[in-house]
Amino acid sequence: MNIYLENLERIEFSVTMCCTGRCRHCSQGDHYGYSGHIDGEKAAEAVEMVCRYYDIKSLMTFGGEPLLFPETVCAIQSAAERAGIPRREIITNGFFSRDSRRIAEVAHMIAESGVNRIMLSVDAFHQETVPLAPVELFAEWVRAEGVPVEIHPAWLRSPEADNEYDRKTRELLKAFREKGYHVSEGNIIFLKGKAVELLGGAADEVPADPYEDYPDDIRALCFDADGGVLGGSIYKNDIIDIIKAYSPV
Ligand code: SF4
Prior knowledge:
Layout: E1 10-14, H1 40-53, E2 58-62, H2 70-82, E3 87-92, H3 100-113, E4 117-120, H4 132-144, E5 149-151, E6 154-155, H5 164-178, E7 182-183, E8 187-188, H6 194-199, E9 220-223, E10 228-229, E11 232-233, H7 239-245
Parallel strand pairs: 1-2, 1-9, 2-3, 3-4, 4-5, 5-7, 6-8
Antiparallel strand pairs: 10-11
Bound molecules: iron/sulfur cluster.
Iron/sulfur cluster binds near residues 19, 28, 63 and 64.
């Protein structure tokens, strides 16, 4: 269909730019002044269409904080399950409500939608502005619903490094490990967005941006919260036409 997307195997949705966190390491910059989210119906339709042509192995919904709009997330994830995408993931800071009933309700919706991995951001950076109690409650409810939860920390330098951020992150992770949660290697923060300004002096080596794709070999189709993708918009054209029209130059 398009030689630049021959190896397409993943779909990602930035569901919203709204966020409950104000992380100093955020690669997306400030989250002030945003509202709204991607249209769940249009997004689900795009997933189904892409999967008719490509063997998609994984789909991720993230944000901002995607679970501010769980109905939208679940519409996308349900479409992914129906289309046969094997890995269906959410990355979340786990804080979208302080109401325990709403937290339980969202955990149930997530399980029903077929999500099979939650990557929960817990570390010194997130917990400067994201309260831990509702995050722990969410993790417990999701796990009780049978959805695997993996704690996914961001490190300033490394899991072993001796600095205030990485020490604090190790403390936070210890509590989750003791409750039986799996902790991933996480990632080293990279200098992009707010991190450039706030941590520019703290990180002396700049790791490669793990989220960059090669424009002439698109492996992940990344939808923005405003419906934008590959220079087009799913609100104006169908995704297959956008893919056909894509050119890296
Ligand atoms: S790092 Fe994640 S949780 Fe923190 S402000 Fe950015 S999008 Fe929100």
